[in-house]
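the three lines:
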Amino acid sequence: MHPFKYVRATSVDEAIAALAKHGERARPLAGGTDALIMARAGRWELDALVDIKHIPETNILELGSSEFRLGAAVPCYRVYEDEQISAVFPGLVDSASIIGGIQIQSRAGLGGNLCNASPSGDGICSLIVHNTTCVIAGPGGTREVAVEDFCTGPGRSVIGDGEFLVEMKMPTPQKGFGAAYQRFTPRNEMDIAVAGVASSVQLDGDTIVSARVALSAVGPTPILSSAGDQLAGKEATAENISAAAQTASGDASPITDMRGTAEQRTHLVGVLARRTLERAVERARENN
Amino acid sequence: MTTETTRGKYNVIGTRPIRHDGFDKVTGRAIYGADIKLPGLLQGAVLRSPHAHARIKSIDTSDAKAVTGVHAVITSADFPGAQDALVDLGEGAVNFRYASNNMMAGDKVLYKGQPVAAVAAVDKNTALEAAALIKIDYELLTPVTDLMEALKPGAPIVLDDLEGQDLGEKIDGPTNQANHIRHEFGDIDRGFAEADLVIEREFTTSMVHQGYIEPHNATASWDEEGRVTIWTSTQGSFPTRRQVAGILQLSDSSVKVIPLEIGGGFGGKIPTYLEPVAAILSRESGRPVKLLMERSSVFEATGPTPGSWMTAKVGVKNDGTITAADTDIRFEAGAYPGSPVGAAMMCVFSCYDIPNTRIDGYDVVVNRPKTAAYRAPGTTQAAFAFETVIDEICQELGMDPIEFRLKNAAKEGTRRADGPIHPLIGNVETLEAAKASDHWNTPLEKSGPNGVLRGRGIASGYWFNIGLKSAVTIAVNEDGTVALTEGSTDIGGSRASIAMMAAEVLGIPVEDVRPHVADTEGIGYTDVTGGSRTTYATGYASHDAAQDVVSQLRERAATLWDVDVDEIEFASGNYQSKSDPELRLTHKELSSKLGSTGGPVVGSASVDPEGAGGAFSTQIADVEIDPETGKTDVIRYTIVQDVGTAIHPSYVEGQMQGAVVQGIGWALNEEYFMNDDGAMVNTSFLDYRMPTTYDLPEIETIIVEVPNPGHPFGVRGVGEVPIVPPVATIANAIHDALGVRLRQSPMNPGRIMSALEDKG
Amino acid sequence: MVEKVRVRATLNGEPVDFLVAPYVSLLDTLRDELGLTGTKEGCNDGNCGACTVNLDGRVVDSCCVLGAEIDGSTVETIEGMAEPGQLHPLQQSFLEEAALQCGICTPGFLMSAKALLDKEPHPSEERIRFWLAGNLCRCTGYDKIVKAVQKVAK
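prediction for all of em together
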């Protein structure tokens, strides 16, 4: 492992300065459950890790009537152990409660899961179906990026040198909204998705006003499927959900690797899309 | 639940005391191999081959040597060049020349992860950084990692100098077939001709790892006198001494091995990997050196159990009598010869009485790590093939699988297919206990919520167990307690069972026995903790050493009372005069008089017992499968096993449960996933997918006790046979749930989905 | 050479003040710098739980934390679990229930189980199994570990 410095930043500007100083040889450190492993394995050669979890902005966890603000360094457990948040965001809890085991969830957060930009990240698809906006700070100021545009390839994102993710913002679910995430893993816990699907629906009575379906581990980045658009304006029937699940399956472009074959993954996306849409509709109906 | 025949027979045996070493292990005080600290200790790092098959053209260590803080850089040139010599390690043998190359490659690397150089430096990171500066020029060779490919003419040759054997004849020219052996019994052709039904199937299994949680480690100090001291986590300190001495070309007596606590082994910590490397780094640096293996290297470069290709053919009459069985078992040896195919051949048919049998076994070298023992080595694979065909036969004949097994069961006097006659065994008793179990008698609902399908499977297994050498000494303290010294490293609570047997003989509470595992200069030669031999053989030595103490204490009593020693009777911990009932002392009272009757008493025994006695297990699994995803959950599991006599039932159950769960992992998800370059790609616990506690139900245990006449307390080995049936048990349960047979393990979700698709 | 950094923290109730290289994990810091070898390394990548410690009230894999990160924090390790002369009920239960064989995973399991019972004194078997999924054991098949925790949770 290349020896690196540890910089504890206490403000956004301090973090930007430290990151900018080392360019691509510096990375932000939040939970560390990916970053330290990457550095140790020699996948990243770093001169500095910049600890961003002592910055007030990255620790925001604020549920407003119209907007939910989730700091980039907020660990998973703070999402699912907050009764109010977990009641409003069961779909996010689906993700936050299966990223690693309890030890990992004490440190790792949805922000780090996003920045790691793994195609199989369990949090990213949930953020996508919740219409999340990413707030990125950098030497050029602050910019906002839709979460579905955040990942650009396996392990790659729109984050540039000197930049880091500060927080994520998403609309607070209103009446008739429901979301769910499920992944398929051979083990029940402590595993990486062979395939995963997050779905959300906004219902008006039995009609789906809008929907989002996002797919994980079946492409170089998480994929926002066209299945959601296909459902817009349709009734929330088993038939329509199955058809949308078919579409989602078609949107998958997986590879075969040690975690599963391309055929298996394509098939699983169809199954999981149907199951998560059904669950999202169920939750939407409960949320009326 | 326990079907105990020994209940009430003993005072200490069969109870569940707290293990003596437990307090240190729940408080973090216990010192494992990685925990050792020494003055001036350097940290080492091993550079490993990134290629599965390559010739080493040159190695340049100059940049690494120049790094500040680096004290030694070594390659195979620093090894003495061990000679061919095959040495039995108790559970598997080792050729020193191959073992030396395995821990530091010579002119060729034979698998990814094979060591090519090593560094000792002031700290771990300096050593790692320096190792990365070593320049190696490789000439890449085509790897062959599949054993059936390796057997084809024209396949890449793994070992240029391998002298292959086929049925006792030397193979001409280069080959990857290290050996082909055969056991034949009866008339196989006549046996199949007599059959009304013959089923023959082909099976494959993937290479799997023992998965112990503690990575390998070794610390060595080479002193000015030329003596080497090794601190390590090993299954056998004496076999480690033998290996280190053989590879370093030293006498055994110039190597001292100090065994520290060991974090799991299951057979995988019998071979040495780091000890000689640490020793040479110490010789070169003049300082003690510690080496810790990374988890990825544990997977890539220690000794997993082989993947296999097998056929199994069984002939039966319509009444369910087996007339003939034929099997061909081919194992990946890894990069050097020596897979456990021989053990598989000893066990594969041994639950049954079959008049006509043929067993072929092949040992095949491939560009994978050299395999090592893993709990009943080779036998899980073989049982997967044979017990699955047996299940299919039962289904075809419409026979209950337990009745079928009872009808054909091997009993005392049955000849095993490989020759030996079964002594008194508990095969039938085990099957009867399975038949009477709550699990077997509770119907299973075949479908469940959300479309899941359920099935039940059953399978049996045999393991022969071994004896080998053990030494024990028992020193009596004046307060009546005793210090018990043994040479068996304690992986799973054996200190307690060894102490319990001494306590039983001496008639004292087990808490009054303080067991201690000594180094190679503190006790007589003792073989590995493996082969299910420790409680059997070291327990035997404990019994005999305690008897020696009793006989010496009788002499002391005789001295004390000035009577003939024949006058002294020993019963229930009391020494008393036959003629004068007033003359009576407890063990404790007599111990307090040692100082005035001739000084301390030390009993000792060294044994090499022959009567290990075989062990049998029958297991029942219920699985629940999501037919849309292929996800399989084990929802109920029962293991029935004949253990002879359960010395400490809790640790007996623990062995049974632990082995079953390893078997469940093997059956469902674990495998070496190799890429086209011959590299294992899932080298982390994340992607190797061993079961977590959230993947499992309670593992129900039924202990059957058919005491082994070859042991003073009736002990049979316990640790290995429980891993023999699980893969077959689960395969049979999957068939019951889905109506499809999986003949390739792991039976992971992808394979289950493919099988369902093929079924249509 | 990267300079060492100064860290002040509370470890098992005692203040500690030490220097550590900034890239060294909390696991190696505890074991190599602070002499507490009860915390074990199994995988060094957050997948086995053998190195579980309690950091500011939450269990973490200490291999996934830098030693430098604990400045100002409170850390508890297996060495701090028992009172002098008195095992924690979970430690006692692990002994009585034979919930360990080789013992290498035991400190991690005890740290995780304690965190669960501190938070939820009466978890179900399902909850115990879920919570402990981040801790691998290869010897016991988990059965006796779960029972040992259940015994204290009653």
